[in-house]
Amino acid sequence: MNPLTARSWSPYAVGAAIGVLSWFAFATADHPLGITTAFEYTSALVMKAVAPGWAAGHSYFQEESPKVDWEWMLVLGVFLGAVLSSRMSGDRERYWVPPLWETRFGSSRGKRILVAAVGGAVMLFGARLAGGCTSGHGISGNLQLAVSSIVFSAAFVVAGIITVFALYGKESRRHV
How many angstroms separate the CA atoms of 162 and 76, rounded? Predict the structure, then answer.
């Protein structure tokens, strides 16, 4: 069987591959895996292009040098990998509004996209506030046995469970 066309992979194999990727990142870039810094840099580069005078006087640009770097390429790779995987495995459902969402909140595409965008922005804000995202803390930080990452990981699992039940209630149990 070709693993590239499989609908799912062994979590043990994927975990080992992510571990190897993390070691590679440390060995070659002396930096842990993470994605949210790329979004921070992208926002900063946009602001610098849109309002160069404001950016020139802002303290962020005195301390940071935003750029398109390997972390940005990781974001691109995750996106392209997900698209390629869904196409090759045939595991791409063709709907804008998932059935569970539609049952609970209605069939509005706009509402679904708005809530997803707001949720993403809140997650990004939280990740920057916490000093890392689920990949930064959940993978790289836990590999280093960082106490902050262990606490963060427990918190995001609990918050995810609470959020699912707050949004979907008992209905979420039937769709797991």
Answer: 30
- Give the pLDDT confidence score for residue 172 in this predicted structure: 60
Residue 72 C-alpha from the chain's centroid: 12
pLDDT of 175 reads 53
Instruction: Quote the tokens at residue 91.
Output: 């595991």
Count CB-CB contacts under 10 A for residue 134: 19
Alpha-carbon distance 79 to 83, whole Å? 6
On the 0-12 / 13-18 / 19+ scale of CB atoms within 10 A, 143 is: middle
* Amino acid letter for position 16: A
Burial 91-129 (b: 16+ CB within 10 A, else e): eeeeeebeeebeeeeeeeeeebeeeeeeeeeeebeebee
pLDDT score of 174:
60
Query: What are the percentages of helix, strand and coil residues in the chain, rounded to 5?
Result: 75, 0, 25
Claim: this prediction has a pTM higher than 0.85: no
